[in-house]
Amino acid sequence: MPIDLSNLVYEFKSIVESLDLTEFFPILQPLEVELGCGDASFLAEYARRHPEVNFLGVERLLGRIKKLDRKGRLAGLTNLRGVRIESAYFLQYLLPAQCATAVHIYFPDPWPKKKHHRHRLINTDFPALARRVLLPGGVVYLRTDDQDYFTQMTEVFGAARDFTGVPTPGELAEVLTDFERGFHAQGIPTLAAAYRSL
User: pTM for the complete prediction?
Assistant: First the structure.
């Protein structure tokens, strides 16, 4: 059955059953996932540069996921889709096990107040969620502007025995998100880390 690319935002048939990725993309090829894809600045550009990879953006906010749809269709991308749902739930329950070669998390909400830190996406449970969906050797790529959150990210992954730190490829680092461009314009540096599953 042909894939309908007239709307790149996937409509869930169920939010309790694992997804069938053959319903997402016309060609089955390696998959990368961005959690909290924002306006899809990064994802649409990276998908354009890498037609040999499928990309799935996850975003909770309707206005942002609509931007992924618009940018992807304007660029004629057949390797880009989006879903509107909360990221941790999507990783834990909906994305099939060992289906992705990479998970990208760029500038997640830092929840700066200490009493709100429990809401952060990257917490002690996150490496297990990421490990479940990653293929062996898959990589988690992280970026933030928040030093406190970056410290938490590196501590969490540093304590995870099934991940090891690796460099972020230069070609990946040069593709900026909308938030990142704004931070750079203000002179705020990007903090980045990457971890490969063992």
Answer: 0.94
